[in-house]
Amino acid sequence: MATNLFSFSGLSLRDVARRTWAEILEDDVFGRAAQLAYYFFLALFPFLIFVIASLSVFGFADRGRVLLFQFVAGALPPSAFELIDRTFSEIIHSSGPLKMSFGIVASLWSASMGMNAVMDTLNAAYKVKENRSLFKQYAVATGLTLGIALLLVISVVIVLAGDKIAHALSPGNILAITWKVAQWPLALALILLAFAITFYFAPDLPNRQWHWVTPGAIAGVILWLVVSIGLRIYLHFLGTYSVGYGSLGAVIVLLLWFYLSGIAVLSGAVINGVIENRAASAGVAQQRNTSPSKAA
């Protein structure tokens, strides 16, 4: 029977927060988030090319780029977004098919290394050792990377196809109105599904339990929104990064955003680990307490 994670396994919200902070320090979440920032920075531009190339299959290449970059612009500080927009345009105009193909392979490798860091953190959070072979580890990391990329592409396609589907259902039709309202929650559901898949397959757990939505996934999304908005506000009012880093300031801001985003996602994983470890401990204790009576 699957554990109800939203019961916090009998822990109070304060206890969950306290244990989560202790686990974050013990599992070196801040150091692991730095690994994620490095690998995801390497994978960023080839990954954007891969997503837009995938959207072109559905006929959404131009509009897909606009929507994707609007989303990125809303999440990133302005200077970091300008760096991405400018660099992406330079890559598109100067790279041939061979270079872009190599870049996509490099993106997959780099993103898979980032996913390996996520797997290590989840193993630490769940207090389990990695017993999978090296080949299986890389296979899982690559599969998760491709799966999450696919979910992202589907999410963007759902949003992009929303108007076309609504128009096909005829404007004003109740089904068309329902679809236009439901497309955004559906896209969010796919993001939560990406969290669920990662939390299920990434750690090397002996007894896996599937959860569609978890406290860690919700907390991860909320924390990511908080750090993204907070960084934008800080840079708007107090940002002086260009004084110390000059022309590299935008790169530093982008790396900082990746770093804070990594902390948010990994912290969500730690929250789930705290709750599930508590549930496992309670189950063992209950089994020990009931075993003498059964023997009698």
Describe this structure in words.
The protein is mainly α. It has one domain (5-286). The protein contains ten helices and no strands. It is globular.
Rg measurement, Å? 22 Å
- Helix fraction by DSSP (H/I, runs of at least 4): over 70%
Indicate the multimeric state: single chain
Order of helices and strands: HHHHHHHHHH
Sketch the major β-sheet: none
Going by helix content, strand content and strand pairing, the class is mainly alpha
Q: Ranges with pLDDT <50 over ≥5 residues?
A: 284-289, 291-296
Count of distinct structural domains: 1
For the secondary structure, the number of strands is 0
Report the principal-axis shape: globular
Descriptive tags:
mainly alpha; 296 residues; globular; 10 helices; 0% strand
Strand and helix layout:
Blueprint: H1 13-26, H2 29-57, H3 61-75, H4 78-94, H5 97-125, H6 134-168, H7 174-201, H8 215-237, H9 241-245, H10 249-295
Helix pairs in contact: 1-10, 2-3, 2-5, 2-6, 2-10, 4-10, 5-6, 5-10, 6-7, 8-10
